[in-house]
Amino acid sequence: MSDRRTLGTLGEEIVARWAERIGWRVIARNWRCRSGELDLVVLDGETLVAVEVKVRSPSGQEPAEWGVHPRKAKRLLQTLNAFVAAYPEYAERYRRIDVVALTVDRRGRIVRWTHLPGSVTDDGVWE
To answer: Is 13 helix (H, G, I), strand (E, B) or coil?
Structure first.
């Protein structure tokens, strides 16, 4: 389980299932535009949430959430704004960007799970 794309796809599937299990409604997966991609877009009640999924193997030197750096945070915010422009029915909703960071072993088992709700602020700063 070392291929980055395979890990990413696995992580997004795990997080999508988790989101639905906790009552969020997944409305888009891998939504793309010129500014980037949103792994998951969900509704948490009335709140529109872009979920950035980061996955690493245990051999990674850094925690998975470190993959969201300030430049990535700004791009996520721009992409979420583009999503809302494309789907104006969500324009009036409160918005946030969550990061879910997973460490997955060779057998696909999760050995570390970190959910950072609202971790990218409205000005695109990573907190």
So the answer is: helix
Report long-range pairs for 121-125 (Cβ below 8 Å, ≥24 apart). Answer: 122/77, 123/77, 124/70, 124/73, 124/74, 124/75, 124/76, 124/77, 124/78, 125/70, 125/73
Write out pLDDT tens, residues 22-37. Answer: 999 999 999 999 999 9
Q: Please report which confidence band the pLDDT of residue 62 belongs to, taking 50, 70 and 90 as the band edges.
A: confident
Write out the H or E segment, with its range, that includes residue 113: strand 110-120
Task: Provide the 8-state DSSP code for 22.
Answer: T
Alpha-carbon distance 63 to 47, whole Å?
A: 27
Q: Retrieve residue 84's tokens.
A: 């809302």
Helix (H) / strand (E) element for 105: namely none
